[in-house]
Structure formats: C-alpha cells, structure tokens
Amino acid sequence: MVKLKEYKLGDPIYTRQGGKWKTPFIVEVIYRGFIVAVNRKSKMFPQFLFIKTYANEVYNGSSRFLKYGINNKSSIKEFIDGIIKGDYKLEKDTCTPINLMLADSEFITNEKREQVRYESK
Asked: Which of 64, 68, 79, 91 has the highest CB neighbour number within 10 Å of its CB?
C-alpha cells in the first residue's frame, strides 16, 4: 500500500507524467480527512483534486464541482462538510486510486533491498 507525503497549505502536488495536467496543483485546504488541491491555470475553469486520504482515492474535475459553488477555501470546507453529512456525493466516475493519478514523487518510498541467496557447492 502506498503512503502519501505529509502536505502543508501551498505545497505543489504533481500528477503522473504524460497525464492531462502539466502544471502542479497547489494544496489549498486540508480538512476532515481530505486534501483539496487546485490548479488555477485556467481562471474560468480551475481543476480540483479532492484526495480522500483515508481511502487512497482522488476525485478530479472542474465543472462538476463548480456547480456546487466551490471557488474559495470556505466554500470547499462547506462542500466537504456536505459530503460527510451525505448532502453531496463524490461521483465514482471521477475516482482514481492515488497511485495511478499522482506522480511517484508524492509518496513516501522506503528503501528496497534485494535478497541475496547464496548457493553452496
């Protein structure tokens, strides 16, 4: 199982190379088990990553979150409260496991050692 790095507000999050997004997402909200990172390269349609840390899932999109009036930190927190209460639902068609969406640099990697087997003659 993969483990995410620890993030602070303002940290960049990179997606896998060759994906849709070339510029990093910036962490704007860390709240109640969610990390919300936003790519505001497009002023009209910012892209959102809702990372559900306890489930290792990433929900991405733009217009489907904008329809709930999400545009600043307080509205993102209200939306997360609504998800937890059951008022809103993150749709599974935008859900991706974090290890398939985020770049390898976003995870804590432990040093791997190969096991050496000696043969006796």
From this structure: 79
pTM of the model: 0.85
Domain assignment present for residue 66? The answer is yes
With a CB cutoff of 8 Å and minimum separation 6, the contacts of 103 are 14, 15, 16, 17
Query: By the 8 A CB rule, do 39 and 47 touch?
Result: yes
Number of domains, the chain = 1
Q: Which domain covers residue 40, as residue numbers?
A: 12-106
Structural domain contains residue 3:
no
Could you report the per-residue pLDDT of 38-81, keeping only the tens digit for each? Answer: 999 888 889 999 999 999 999 998 888 888 888 889 999 999 99
